[in-house]
Amino acid sequence: MLALYWLLPQALGGKTPPPLWRFLTFTQNIELQPGTAFSHAWSLCIEEQFYLVLPAALMLIAALRQHRRVLAWALILVLTVAAISWRDHLWTLYGTEASGALAKYYPNVYYGSLCRLDEFLPGVAVALLRNGHPAAWAALMAQPRRLLAVGVVACSVMFWMLLDRYYIDGYGYGRAMSTFGYSAMAWAFGLMVMASLAPRGKLSTWRVPGAEPLARWSYAIYLTHKPIAFVLVKPLAAVGIAAKSGGAVPVIALACLAGGWLLYRLVELPFLRLRDRWLPSHFRTREVGVLSGAFHAPQG
To answer: What is the pTM of this model?
Structure first.
């Protein structure tokens, strides 16, 4: 996809993308301007940045002999508070129409690494709770209905806040959502993940038709959906279907599904098979992973 964007930026995305080295070093999200070609790669960059730091942090904690779990929870708390504080500071600079700098909100807050890295921490917290606190985890897994209820309420509140308080006409970006909202949304989904892991819970046994293949293709769909939608605008207009009309939605959605499936079959799946062939032991499913090794040692 990067090669296609680099060769055909105008055809696939409109505005010229950042320099190639920004993609190759996973720094494309830094000071990214909205609307550039392949702009949706910003989240992949932050993901790579996070997974560059996470192993180093885990190895550092694993090297300690005492208070590993306490340190891990403290680090999660400190990083979350730091991200909230940084977003609040940037909101005062770029968050309101009165600031005259709304155009800088996305490059600095929405796309910013320091503003978004903490949203990966709920996943780390779930793994830490499961592997580092087995008794507490078992107690939570025995309450699937309560977990699901809390998760649904939390996600519902956050979705309402997102729709109603994220951007306020005549004012700008809401302070609560800009400051706390990103973190709160991630933790709300973390609760839903825990509810889905409860063996006796409904989410763990509920099978949604089509969900499994959609999950397999999701990464490829994410990579291809914007260029496919962009390419379809003119053909749809030629047959009298406006790009933002209700008639365009199913056409574009089906095209994006087909494009994601094609990329998955032609690129992702072959490389996954090569990975499993060359490094089979690295990807075997294990009940206890790296976090277990880091946090199960005797505590002082």
So the answer is: 0.85
